[in-house]
Amino acid sequence: MYLFLALALFMLAISFVYQFYNREATEIVVPDEVMCTMDALLCPDGSYVGRTGPKCEFVCPPMAELDPVIAASIAAHADIITLTTPTPQAIITSPLILEGQARGPWFFEASFPVTLTNWNGLIIAEGPATAVGDWMTTEFVPFTMKLDFVSPYNAGDPDFMKRGTLILQKDNPSGLPENDDALELPVRFAP
Question: Three-state DSSP class for 115?
Fold first, then answer.
């Protein structure tokens, strides 16, 4: 009986040794892990993103396309008035510095009115943009303005409350409707 038990244990040991030496080596692949810093970036659409991916890059969501009606209005006014800063759909903070150029007839007494509204059309700031140079011409004249305002958007508010409109109005001292004109640009408020 002991001989049978010893023989069984011997055979079992030989089978374990055989399996151990005859198995195929399998390679375990461990993916390279990348640890990114916990930085945050404010994207043009007003959202915040962290670093991601193998290169720890900031990836902002794509900007929404400019509404075709607004794009057409900007294009139609390009030969009359252009705004270099801020750009359409830019995130704005106070004080907002406006720079651009307009043809002389857009001004009256070297200025024209600018209005900033929230998503609901409520006026939150207004004032005159002033010509930098002689405005008594039909050529383009540079203008500038500093607009102070309180942002209507607070962190945690619904996304639609980030939207606003910057309105550059042609100065119309006559009050005649046929002389009215305006360039409206969408903007986004920072919290």
Answer: strand
Q: What is the mean pLDDT of residues 19-24?
A: 66
Q: Using 50, 70 and 90 to split pLDDT, how confident is the model at 120?
A: very high
Are 79 and 32 within 8 A, CB to CB?
no
Is it the case that residue 58 has pLDDT exceeding 70?
yes
The yes-or-no verdict on residue 45 having pLDDT over 70 is no
* Residues 6+ positions from 66 with CB-CB distance below 8 Å: 74, 88, 89, 186
Domains of the chain: 25-63 (no CATH), 68-189 (2.60.40.2550)
Q: How far is CA 37 from CA 41, 50, 52, 58, 187, in A?
A: 12, 8, 9, 11, 31
Its pTM stands at 0.68
Determine the Cα–Cα distance for residues 187 and 44; give it in Å rounded to an integer.
Answer: 10
d(CA 72, CA 34): 45
As a whole number of angstroms, the distance between CA 108 and CA 171 comes to: 6
